[in-house]
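Notebook p. 47: complex prediction with alpha-L-arabinofuranose.
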Amino acid sequence: MNSKRRALLGAAICMSLGSAVSFPAFAADKPLTMGFSQVGAESEWRTANTVSIKDAAKQAGVNLKFADAQQKQENQVKAIRSFIAQKVDVIAFSPVVESGWETVLREAKAAKIPVILTDRAVNVSDKSLYVTFIGSDFVEEGRRAGRWLLDKAKSMPAGDINIVELQGTVGSAPAIDRKAGFEEVIKSEPRLKIIRSQTGDFTRAKGKEVMEAFLKAEGKKINVLYAHNDDMAIGAIQAIEEAGLKPGKDITIISIDGVKGAFEAMMAGKLNVTVECSPLLGPQLMQIAKDIKAGKEVPKRITTEEGIFPAEVAAKEFPNRKY
Ligand code: AHR
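Predicted complex, structure tokens below:
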């Protein structure tokens, strides 16, 4: 991806326009207060996302109330209720899982506080419970990973290609969507078979632990690892090496995010490809929050523009990486 495209990150807006929103009038000279509930600090991606949001708030003069949910939905619900009680101007959050949000979002709506979803979507039948969503197309990320593997399969030895899958957090949008997108694409090649699939909760430690179990159960039968994020892939790489195998060679490794750690692994020949998922959502989030409070019409979904980086381009791209 060239730098112009990257600069346009987020400017690639899916203009499925939401309806004009009406929230209490807001004095433009008063700093906007935003309550933000973050998933946690489970990955290199998440750390970069938190930095992006905090930095952008500072730059935009937004008074940010930040709460870390430590990967627990109950903590996010508590944080949102506390933001409502504090009468913040806007609530934004990255939901740890997709379901179970109706009640608290109805409370925010009753308090006339607009809600912005960032990074992960929610599964609610009443779409008016949030104003907009800013983030990636996770299904497309899964498809990109699948398409890369379809192409790679052409040069792999004849016979079944056995895949193990490290899923993200159970019930989270990226875990559900990345699995669906990948499966949708690989089903066109019957040689590609997912023989094990388990959650690694998006963390390095769990990625390593689950990969150890996969290796114990399947050993040298494993040809490909598909990890729903780079951190789990990096943990799995350690497990593969400890099992006396060569990651990136004996086992082809595909992951998602495009963090610096993944580029380092690719440059060391241990990871074959990473699909980009940008965490740099802060500036867009602050702008959209201001637009909503100014009564402007905003799109219902704002999709970030992303690419895919195979190991062959890692060294050239590494100096451009921002996270
Ligand atoms: O929701 C985005 C995902 O969450 C990222 O891929 C992962 O690294 C993070 O924990």
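Notes: The chain has eleven helices and twelve strands. Residues 42-43, 45-46, 119-120, 174, 202, 229, 231, 256-257, 277 surround alpha-L-arabinofuranose (CB under 6 Å).
Next step: compare against the earlier run before touching the bench.
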